[in-house]
Amino acid sequence: MTHSPSNPILLTASLHVDEARKTISGLVSELLQESRKLNHANDIESVVLDQAINRILAEDLLSPINVPAADNSAMDGFAFNGDCLEDSDRIVTLKLVGTAYAGKPYVSKIGSGECLKIMTGALMPDGCDTVIPQELTESANESLVGFKQNQVKRGENRRLCGEDLQSGKAAIAAGRLLRPSDIGLAASLGVANLKVRRRLKVAILSSGDELRPLGKPLDAGSIYDSNRYSLTGLLNRLNLEIIDCGIVRDDPTSLKAAFIDAASKADVLISSGGVSVGEADFTKQIMQELGDVGFWKIAMRPGRPMAFGTLKPVQDSGHKALFFGLPGNPVAVMVTFYQFVRSALLQLNGASQTESPMTQAIAEVAIRKKPGRTEFQRAILGRGADGKPTVKLTGNQGAGILRSMSEANCFVILPHDQGNIAAGDWVDVALFDGLL
Questions:
Q1: Domain boundary residue among 348, 383, 410?
Q2: Range of the domain at 407
Q3: Nearest CA to 393 among 331, 348, 347, 338?
Q4: Total-model pTM
Q5: Would you say 414 and 374 are in contact if contact means Cβ atoms under 8 Å apart?
Q6: How many CA atoms lie within 13 A of 167 on its CB side?
Q7: Closest CA relative to residue 424, chosen from 384, 396, 370
Q8: Which of 55, 237, 303, 413 gives 20 to 30 Å between its CA and that of 366?
Q9: Both 313 and 408 in a single domain?
Q10: What is the pLDDT of residues 157-182, one digit of tens each?
Q11: In DSSP terms, which residues pair with 194 in a beta bridge?
């Protein structure tokens, strides 16, 4: 298996970003297969609609009604029977016999040579199959409406019953990460509850003797722990259950106890710090004792030291927790979460779409880049005078400069083999909005 600790390449070499993603996805697939064998009935729950945002839909949502429920007008205008139309600019004049409003159907039948003033969404009356938009009429008063016949074709501007969605058909497919538009769609169908996947339990902790909690004074060489707060924000975007395990000291006994406790409670454990090659970094040793090490280093910047694998806190138990050991630098924590952890959490929670959307923009200035690693530069996406998308870096790209993330609205992603970027070159961009 590519993630097995018996493969020394993954534990010594720096993996290509794409290979790291494949390794993670492969291991998550195995965990999902094991979970399905156990047939956990509590993996699905029903929630009220206003609590379903950012949850994963567990079953196809079948529409209980046709959408639209009946033929209706697509715009404000005049409804009539299109059998009077010819392909000519001859004016046709129709007798105006009434008005139809949305929610107030016109109940009488419209005869030949007659028309009805109709509002957007109003039901099409008996005898009508076409709507001429109000702005295309050349003459209209309280009793007559005139327009050129070639301004409209028979059947135009009418929405047919079931045209958007037929009763019994899937309105939203299982595996969707539910967005506000999905919640609105379900509400429009009269659906009050949705079946969703159980929220994953994700434990987070920070390791390091230099870390201090908020509200405590800083002594020489110490810093406040920001990583747990960044991770909490990122996980809340996915509406997951968070178990905050706090700050753990840099000694193997404390770390091992914290890992066992966290992994026994959670589906996933995310730690920050303690994954480099320093003498006080014990994560790799503990992973080898408690589970499997998938890989240790990735050819990327920032975020090269990143541990991945599984933890089995109780040897005789079937429970395995997915483990991500993220770097200690604040920017590297967010970059590695965005590039690897987010998609793995979505996959593990049953999402059908796990990749983040990408776009392209023109680099405003030159960007230095060495081939041999993938780089994720913090940047601001904008628009040039010609209307084309442009992007510029936020300044110093150091892995410890969290301000570079705060000021940015996107990543510029520079591929593994890419060299320097010239001003005016097109580059790949991943937006933060809705993700970070």
A1: 348
A2: 358-431
A3: 331
A4: 0.86
A5: yes
A6: 8
A7: 384
A8: 303
A9: no
A10: 999 999 999 999 999 999 999 999 99
A11: 47
